[in-house]
C-alpha cells in the first residue's frame, strides 16, 4: 500500500493540491449546467440592445425627416420662390400690418401696369461720436459702396454730431458686408424708396418724389395727399404705357432723322378727353431725377408755348362757318399779298388765284386764312378763341401747365386778326392744340382733358362750342389735307387719318423770328368717318436732309411721323383697319374742292353759334359737285395775280410738297415759316405754312 503523494514543487504552502481530473462525461455535464446558468443575463442584455437599436433607428428617421423638411423649405425660399418675403407671408397668415408697409400708394396705367411703387429699403446711418477711427471706417465703406466718395464719407463720420446719413438704399449684399465690419456706431434703419419700373415711359406725367417721399412734380405732386392718405388704393391713370412707348419711339426717330433738339407727342380720346399718351423729348429715367438736366425735365407738351402755325387754320375755318361769315361756296382772293404797314403776308408756293374754302385748307393758304379771319372780325375772333379755351390755362391733373400768350383785348386789332388767322401772333401749348382738334372731332363739345382713367361708358360733362354740322364739314376738310394736301405723307391705309400740318418759325429772345429755326407739327384725328382719337406730334428745330430734298417743313417731318405712330398705336388699341376703298366711307368723307363749279343754293343762310337759326354744313348743292377732288386751276382774270418770289430752296418735281411744279431757282427771299403751302412775312415776321 503506497503512502501519501508528495506535494508538487510549485504548490503554494497551505493550499490543498489540485483535485484529480474527472471523467470526460461528468465534466461535460458540469459545463452544460454552468452554461445554462450564465445564459439568463446575456439574453437580458441582448434584449436591451435590440430595444436601444430600434429607438436609435426611429430617432435617426425623425432627424432625417426634419432635415428633409428644412432642406425643402430652404430650396423653396432660395431657388423656387425667392420673391415672397417672410414679412408678407406673416401678414397674410396673421392679417396684422407689418412695420414696412408702404406709406405711398402705387400708380398704374389704364391696364394695371405699375408705373410707380414704394418698396422697403435699408438705410445706413452713423453715430460719429461712437466711431473711433473715421478715416479707416471711410476706407472700408468706400470699398463696399464704390459709388460714394471717400472724402465725403470721412467728413460724415467725423465730428460731435450723433446722426448722419451714409447711404439711403443698400442692397442685401452691401448690408451684409457692412454688418461684417462690426464697426460700433454704424446702424441700419428700415425705410422705403419710390421705384419707377417703366424707366422713361410717361416720366413727365408721373413726376418724382424727394428723399422724404413727398411729390415734387407731375401727378406725384398733384395727387400727393391722395397717395399718402390712401396708400392701399392704387391711382390708375388714363395713360396706356404701350401707346406711350410707341409715341416715344416714333418721335425719337423723327428727331434723329432731322437732327431736331426735341419734340412732343400726345394722344387723346375724343369722347372722354382722356390723355392716352404724352411724351416730351428729351426726357430722363424717372429713377434718376438727380442726373436729369433742366432741358430734360421740361415738359414741352404742357409747359412749352409755341406758335401753332397752320394747324390753327382749322379753328379759323370752324369760326367762320359757325358765325356764318363763310360757307362751303365762299371764295377768297389769294392772288395778291396782304400789306399791313411795312409788313406783307404772302403764300409760300401759292396758287396766285382765287381759292375756294376747301382749297384754302388744301393748299394751306395764309392769305386765304387771313381773309377768312378778317371777315369774322377781331372781337368775334377773340370771343371764339376764348370759348375754345385757347386764351386760358387748361385744367389737367398736372402742376406744370402754361397759359397761352396772346395780345390783350386793347391791342387785338386787325393786324392781330390777320396773323392769328393762320396761327401766328399767338402762342399755345400742344395740349391746347390737341384739345381743340378733339373738340372738332367729337362734334363740337369741349371737355377738359384728364389723366385719370374713366370707367367704360362714362359720359363726361362738356360745353358745346361749335355746331355739329360745322365740325362735320371741317372733318372732311381735314381728310382732304391728307388725301390731296400738304399731309399726304400722313396717310395710313384703312385708318382714314385726317388733320393739318403746321410749320412755324421760332421767335427770338429779343423779338422777331430766328432764321432757320422752326417748329413742325401735325394735328389730326382718326378714323375721320367716326373719330375716336386725336393725335399731335411736334418736332422742335428740325434740319433739312437729303431724303427731304432740303426741306424741313411739317409735310416732310411731322406728317410721316404721325403716319408711323398711328400705324403702331391703332392695333394696340384694338382698332381694325377698314377697307380703304369702301364706297360708303369715301362718300361720307367726300367734299368738292371747288364747290362753286356745281349748282349752289340761291341764299345760303348764315349759320353758327352767333346765329342760332342755322347750322353750318355741306350745302345741298354739294351732292351735284363733280366727282374729281383735283380740280383744274382757275384764275381771276379781273385781278391778275402778282408774281411771288420763289422760296430759297429747290423743290424737285413730283414731290408731296410740290407735286406738279418743276425745280425752282434759288433766290434771296426769306423762307416760309409755318404750315406746308403757306406764306411768310416780309422784314421781321415769317408767316405760317
UniProtKB/TrEMBL annotation:
Q: In what residue span(s) does the Penicillin-binding protein dimerisation domain sit? A: 100-215
* Domain Penicillin-binding protein transpeptidase residue range list: 264-557
Q: Where is this region: Disordered?
A: 1-46, 592-689
Among InterPro entries, the record links this protein to: Beta-lactam/transpept, Beta-lactam/transpept-like, PBP_dimer, PBP_dimer_sf, PCN-bd_Tpept
Q: Where is the composition biased (Pro residues)?
A: 640-650
Entry keyword annotation includes Hydrolase: yes
Spell out the subcellular localization from the entry. Answer: Membrane
Q: Where is the composition biased (Low complexity)?
A: 1-17, 595-639, 651-660
Q: Which Pfam families match?
A: PBP_dimer, Transpeptidase
Q: Which residues cross the membrane?
A: 56-80
- Protein name per its UniProtKB record: Peptidoglycan D,D-transpeptidase FtsI family protein
Look up and give the organism this protein is from: Roseomonas elaeocarpi
Q: What is the lineage of its organism?
A: Bacteria, Pseudomonadati, Pseudomonadota, Alphaproteobacteria, Acetobacterales
Amino acid at each position: 500500500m503506497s503512502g501519501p503523494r508528495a506535494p508538487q514543487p510549485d504548490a503554494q504552502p497551505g493550499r490543498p493540491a489540485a483535485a484529480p481530473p474527472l471523467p470526460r462525461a461528468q465534466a461535460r455535464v458540469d459545463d452544460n449546467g454552468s452554461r445554462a446558468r450564465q445564459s439568463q443575463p446575456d439574453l437580458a442584455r441582448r434584449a436591451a440592445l435590440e430595444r436601444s437599436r430600434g429607438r436609435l433607428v426611429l430617432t435617426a428617421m425623425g432627424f432625417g425627416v426634419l432635415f428633409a423638411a428644412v432642406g425643402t423649405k430652404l430650396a423653396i425660399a432660395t431657388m423656387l420662390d425667392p420673391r415672397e418675403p417672410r414679412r408678407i407671408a406673416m401678414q397674410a397668415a396673421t392679417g396684422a400690418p407689418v412695420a414696412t408697409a408702404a406709406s405711398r400708394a402705387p400708380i398704374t396705367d389704364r391696364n394695371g401696369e405699375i408705373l410707380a411703387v414704394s418698396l422697403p429699403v435699408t438705410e445706413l446711418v452713423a453715430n460719429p461720436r461712437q466711431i473711433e477711427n473715421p478715416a479707416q471706417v471711410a476706407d472700408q465703406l468706400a470699398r463696399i459702396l464704390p459709388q460714394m466718395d471717400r472724402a465725403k464719407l470721412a467728413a460724415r463720420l467725423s465730428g460731435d454730431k450723433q446722426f448722419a446719413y451714409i447711404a439711403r438704399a443698400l442692397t442685401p449684399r452691401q448690408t451684409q458686408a457692412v454688418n461684417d465690419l462690426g464697426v460700433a456706431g454704424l446702424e441700419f434703419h428700415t425705410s422705403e424708396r419710390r421705384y419707377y419700373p417703366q424707366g422713361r415711359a410717361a416720366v413727365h406725367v408721373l413726376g418724382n418724389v424727394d428723399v422724404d417721399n413727398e411729390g415734387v412734380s407731375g401727378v406725384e405732386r398733384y395727387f400727393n395727399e391722395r397717395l399718402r392718405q390712401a396708400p392701399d388704393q392704387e391711382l390708375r391713370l388714363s395713360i396706356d404705357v404701350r401707346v406711350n412707348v410707341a409715341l416715344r419711339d416714333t418721335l425719337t426717330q423723327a428727331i434723329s432723322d432731322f437732327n431736331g433738339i426735341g419734340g412732343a407727342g400726345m394722344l387723346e380720346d375724343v369722347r372722354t378727353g382722356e390723355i392716352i399718351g404724352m411724351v416730351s423729348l428729351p426726357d430722363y429715367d424717372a429713377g434718376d431725377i438727380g442726373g436729369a438736366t433742366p432741358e430734360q425735365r421740361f415738359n414741352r407738351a404742357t409747359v412749352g408755348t409755341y406758335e401753332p402755325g397752320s394747324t390753327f387754320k382749322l379753328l379759323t375755318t370752324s369760326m367762320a362757318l359757325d358765325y356764318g361769315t363763310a360757307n362751303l361756296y365762299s371764295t377768297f382772293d389769294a392772288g395778291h399779298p396782304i400789306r399791313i404797314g411795312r409788313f406783307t403776308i404772302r403764300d409760300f408756293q401759292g396758287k396766285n388765284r382765287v381759292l375756294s374754302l376747301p382749297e384754302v385748307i388744301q393748299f394751306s393758304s395764309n392769305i386765304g386764312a387771313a381773309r377768312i379771319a378778317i371777315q369774322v372780325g377781331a372781337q368775334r375772333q377773340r370771343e371764339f378763341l376764348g370759348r375754345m379755351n385757347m386764351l386760358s390755362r387748361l385744367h389737367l391733373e398736372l402742376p406744370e401747365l402754361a397759359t397761352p400768350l396772346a395780345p390783350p383785348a386793347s391791342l387785338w386789332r386787325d393786324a392781330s386778326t390777320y396773323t392769328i388767322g393762320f396761327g401766328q401772333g399767338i402762342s399755345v401749348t400742344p395740349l391746347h392744340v390737341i384739345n381743340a382738334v378733339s373738340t372738332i372731332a367729337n362734334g363740337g363739345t369741349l371737355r377738359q382733358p384728364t389723366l385719370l382713367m374713366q370707367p367704360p361708358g362714362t359720359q363726361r360733362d362738356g360745353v358745346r362750342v361749335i355746331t355739329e354740322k360745322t365740325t362735320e364739314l371741317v372733318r372732311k376738310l381735314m381728310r382732304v389735307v391728307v388725301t390731296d394736301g400738304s399731309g399726304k405723307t400722313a396717310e395710313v391705309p384703312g385708318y382714314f387719318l385726317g388733320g393739318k400740318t403746321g410749320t412755324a418759325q421760332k421767335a427770338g429772345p429779343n423779338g422777331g423770328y430766328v432764321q432757320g429755326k422752326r417748329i413742325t407739327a401735325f394735328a389730326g384725328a382718326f378714323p375721320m368717318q367716326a373719330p375716336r382719337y386725336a393725335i399731335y406730334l411736334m418736332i422742335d428745330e428740325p434740319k433739312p436732309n437729303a431724303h427731304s430734298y432740303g426741306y424741313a417743313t411739317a409735310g416732310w417731318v411731322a406728317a410721316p411721323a404721325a403716319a408711323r405712330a398711328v400705324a403702331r398705336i391703332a392695333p394696340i388699341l384694338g382698332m381694325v383697319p377698314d377697307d380703304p376703298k369702301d364706297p360708303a366711307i369715301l362718300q361720307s368723307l367726300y367734299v368738292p374742292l371747288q364747290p362753286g363749279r356745281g349748282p349752289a343754293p340761291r341764299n345760303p343762310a348764315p349759320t353758327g353759334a352767333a346765329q342760332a337759326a342755322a347750322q353750318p354744313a355741306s350745302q345741298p348743292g354739294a351732292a351735284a359737285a363733280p366727282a374729281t377732288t383735283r380740280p383744274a386751276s382757275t384764275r381771276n382774270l379781273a385781278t391778275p395775280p402778282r408774281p411771288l418770289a420763289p422760296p430759297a430752296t429747290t423743290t424737285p418735281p413730283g414731290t408731296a410738297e410740290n407735286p406738279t411744279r418743276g425745280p425752282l431757282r434759288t433766290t434771296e427771299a426769306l423762307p416760309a415759316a409755318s404750315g406746308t403751302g403757306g406764306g411768310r412775312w416780309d422784314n421781321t415776321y415769317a408767316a405760317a405754312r
